[in-house]
Amino acid sequence: MAGKHPRNLAGLQAALRCGVKTRSGEPCRAPAIAGALRCRMHGGKGSGAPNGNRNAQKHGAYSKRVRNLRAARQAFEKAMRVMIEQLDSFS
């Protein structure tokens, strides 16, 4: 498949490199994405789901409001257990 035509690699060779430290300790040698400091493998294109992706909607199970509700429920259950133990001790 390799043709005999000369390849223009000047732009690729002049591109800014990613520079993330790999597991071997060496910097990544892949070219950074245009307008970013990282390559496509290390998050240069952006992270997360595309806009409008319904699979990426947040469910709210870890929101502050739900955490407070959960803590209040646990405190209530603990108080009820203590009360039941006290009532059992009267018997």
UniProtKB/TrEMBL annotation:
Positions of the UniProt region annotated as Disordered: 44-63
Which InterPro entries does the record match to this protein?
A: Putative_zinc-bd
Its domain of life reads Bacteria
Protein name as it appears in the record = Glucans biosynthesis protein
